[in-house]
Write a structure and sequence with these properties.
Chain B: It is found in: Cell membrane. The structure holds two protein chains of two kinds. Chain A is mainly α. Chain A is 74% helix and 3% strand. Chain B has two domains: 7-196, no CATH class; 208-256. The chains are: A mainly alpha, B mainly alpha.
Chain lengths: 299, 257
């Protein structure tokens, strides 16, 4: 990930893109392609779910047919596959649908520019857009889809089930699936249109570095919120000396609340910084350490 | 109370659970996983007592009403709990409440099984990366869908089959015995700490070290305001405003130069 190092590198990369050899022209993206990509993401949604990449492979799965139409150059296609296998996590319709559309429009703009020998949208730009938007959109989608729409349908038909009628199970399932599939597709189309306009604006305005930074701020900010909310590490060490009881977690909390989760995430961050992005190794080390520490009730 | 199912009944229910928990039916599996209703209906069909199955399942549904999974991790797998509890309730002529007592601990155990699936899926990543680097679309599709699906089927079918065939009451008593034990503690600690991994990776990917203060700002905001229970969208608005301010200030600096 050396090209993500700083602003300078980003600008250099954008310049390099237009000095490279010209690539074959991409095919035109149609509504059918958007439907194919939306369906691919919808279908693969949580099948290859892992802790380290989350839903990235599913997102990549949806994009495969579209990327094949955009990148006729084998190396660029491989690079596109690889960048969409990086960590990605969002909700299926509001997050994934919208971002499938946005990403396709950005990839299309990149492929076209590279084919015409113009300055192309950088890989960082595409990654940062996804990462910056995935969290907020997921928050919206979780509360609308699984938190509201789903339970409205279940609540309406639950009396059927309580009387022993199978329609109480079948109808909420069918209605939820049809509703979410339909508006997910419209969100994909909307994301594509929005993204295409935004891409034009960005490229003509010459504000790419600023926007990448802005999305970087937004992305890191959202990661900080997620870290604070989802990482649960606390110490269970308790002992007493001469009748005085010590509770390590309480002592840590008086020094600085939230210290242990922060140490874990920073430890991993600097591990990856030093060793490169060796994700599987990081996963194994972390799991091993957590198991050993928790067996002895240290955490 | 003697509870048994035929081999075929146990196997069919196990296959259904694997279909739901592997997520191979797409986003439609969300309701199947979060809500016990569809699993209850299938169990009723397989056992030939749809009516009683629906009544028991409706009671279980009330326990899991309003269940959402922020970030994809559900605190329990109602579908797995239902697959075990409904057959027991039907064969043992139990009350719906008795079925809930079995469903809840089994569903809790089921959520660890579901997270274990994330671990096992990691094995598919290596071939994904390889096929992506080669630009091999067919291989990539295969490794994204077929390998994880097979992993889930190999994980869920035997376990659910054994659980059903050799008696769900045994399972629920085992669960009750280890509920406060070291095994559950270790599972909780590992699950709680592993959330750090994905976050550290994304920090590395968008990682401009100069922007790290914004990570700390957000982290301590969420720690300090934890009790206020602030909505994710509000935090996203804060993030967007900080981003805009940052871009405005930095672009002014370069103009002045």
């Amino acid at each position: 990930m050396s090209e993500t190092a700083d602003i300078q590198a980003t600008a250099n990369e954008a310049v390099q893109d237009n000095t490279e050899h010209r690539l074959p022209q991409p095919d035109k993206i149609t509504n059918k392609d958007l439907m194919k990509s939306w369906f691919g993401w919808w279908w693969a949604n949580e099948v290859p779910h892992t802790f380290d990449r989350m839903l990235a492979p599913s997102f990549c799965f949806g994009l495969i047919p579209t990327l094949q139409k955009l990148y006729k150059d084998h190396d660029e296609l491989a690079k596109a596959f690889q960048r969409h296998l990086l960590f990605f996590n969002t909700q299926a319709t509001w997050g994934g649908g919208t971002l499938t559309g946005v990403t396709i429009s950005l990839e299309e703009a990149r492929a076209k520019a590279m084919a015409n020998g113009e300055e192309a949208i950088s890989e960082d730009m595409i990654n940062n857009t996804k990462v910056g938007l995935m969290g907020p959109l997921a928050g919206i989608g979780d509360s609308i889809d699984s938190g509201t729409v789903q339970y409205i349908f279940i609540a309406i038909f639950l009396p059927f089930a309580q009387k022993g009628n199978f329609l109480g199970a079948l109808l909420p399932f069918l209605l939820f699936s049809i509703a979410t599939f339909t508006y997910g597709y419209y969100l994909t189309k909307m994301g594509y249109t929005l993204g295409r306009n935004a891409a034009k604006e960005i490229m003509t305005g010459g504000r790419m570095a600023g926007i990448i930074d802005g999305l970087g701020v937004m992305g890191l900010y959202m990661m900080g919120i997620l870290a604070g909310q989802y990482i649960k590490v606390q110490s269970y060490i308790k002992f007493s000396i001469n009748g005085k009881k010590f509770n390590i977690q309480e002592i840590l909390d008086t020094i600085m609340p939230g210290m242990l989760p922060l140490l874990v995430v920073l430890g991993l961050y600097f591990y990856f910084q030093k060793q490169g992005l060796k994700i599987t190794r990081g996963l194994l080390y972390l799991t091993g350490i957590l198991i050993v520490l928790s067996i002895f009730y240290i955490i | 109370m003697h509870v048994t199912l035929t081999v075929w009944q146990a196997l069919l229910i196990a296959i259904w659970v694997a279909l739901v928990e592997s997520r191979i039916l797409g986003f439609a599996t969300l309701t199947m996983r979060f809500s016990p209703l569809m699993t209850g209906m299938m169990v009723g069909l397989i056992m030939g007592d749809l009516r009683q199955a629906m009544i028991v399942t409706a009671a279980i549904q009330l326990v899991y009403m309003g269940f959402v999974a922020p970030g994809g991790a559900l605190p329990a797998e109602p579908s797995i709990g239902t697959a075990i509890a409904v057959p027991v309730a039907i064969l043992g002529h139990m009350s719906p409440q008795g079925a809930i007592a079995i469903a809840v601990p089994v569903a809790l155990l089921g959520s660890y099984l579901y997270q274990f699936r994330f671990f096992l899926n990691t094995f598919a990543l290596k071939s994904m990366d390889k096929f992506a680097a080669e630009g091999n679309a067919r291989g990539l599709k295969f490794s994204i869908m077929v390998i994880p699906a097979c992993i889930s089927f190999l994980l869920f079918i035997p376990l659910i089959f054994i659980a059903l065939y050799f008696g769900a009451p045994v399972i629920s008593s085992v669960v009750a015995n280890i509920e406060h034990g070291t095994i559950i503690h270790v599972l909780n600690s590992v699950g709680g700490g592993l959330a750090a991994l994905g976050i550290a990776i994304i920090m590395q990917v968008i990682g401009k070290k100069t922007l790290l203060p914004f990570f700390f700002l957000a982290y301590f905001m969420s720690v300090a305001f934890a009790k206020l229970d602030i909505n994710m969208t509000i935090y996203a608005v804060f993030g967007a405003i900080f981003a805009i301010i940052y871009v405005m200030l930095t672009s002014r600096n370069t103009e002045n130069n």
